[in-house]
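PROTEIN–LIGAND DATA SHEET

This sheet pairs a single protein chain with one bound small molecule, 5HU, given as SMILES. Inputs appear in the order they were entered. The predicted three-dimensional arrangement of chain and ligand is reported afterwards as a token string under its own label.
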Amino acid sequence: MHIYFCGSIRGGRQDVDIYQKIVRKLKTFGEVLTEHVSHSELSEKGEYAALRGEKAIHQRDMDWLSLSDVIVAEVTQPSLGVGYELGRAVAMEKNIFCLFRPSSERSLSAMIRGADDGERVQVRDYAEEEVEAILDEYFAKLNKGYCWTLVGLDQYWSWSGMQVQQDPGSEGLRPGFRPGSDQDLQLL
Ligand SMILES: O=c1[nH]c(=O)n([C@H]2C[C@H](O)[C@@H](COP(=O)(O)O)O2)cc1CO
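PREDICTION REPORTED AS:
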């Protein structure tokens, strides 16, 4: 599983220790593409010097975002970049899990909290000591969803393979094809 972690860089590095804790946990579920966000050596200047330019950072991160199965964002420290990544991820219909600490006494933007649909986009208030358990719970549910999708796909492919075998001249499935119906048998 590819995981994209979002956390503030130029928005302020105050929460880097929590980012580290989250990324350490995320690595037990899959590959974290944006591990650099949690590096304590990364300053508010960001990666400009290392990557020779803002365009390269933006392009690389958009490629990683497209590749990701899930986005996990620590949104307590406000960051324009994190807000932008989340907006793009919503448009890509990704699974998104945002984590916010009310103990900061900040008020999370309505554009993030209001995007919660209880399913694909989820926003969760948390305290630092419970973050690992919360991530366990989230990924357990996410993986369960994936298992069902795989079972469904497997059934679909074995069914469609059967149809093609019965009709060797077939170039594939026809639109409006219904498995097992008389209409299908006539079409074949
Ligand atoms: O150098 C960088 N590298 C990088 O990957 N980002 C991405 C990942 C972070 O989740 C997000 C942080 O945005 P911001 O720097 O505006 O706080 O943007 C952002 C920067 C600097 O803006």
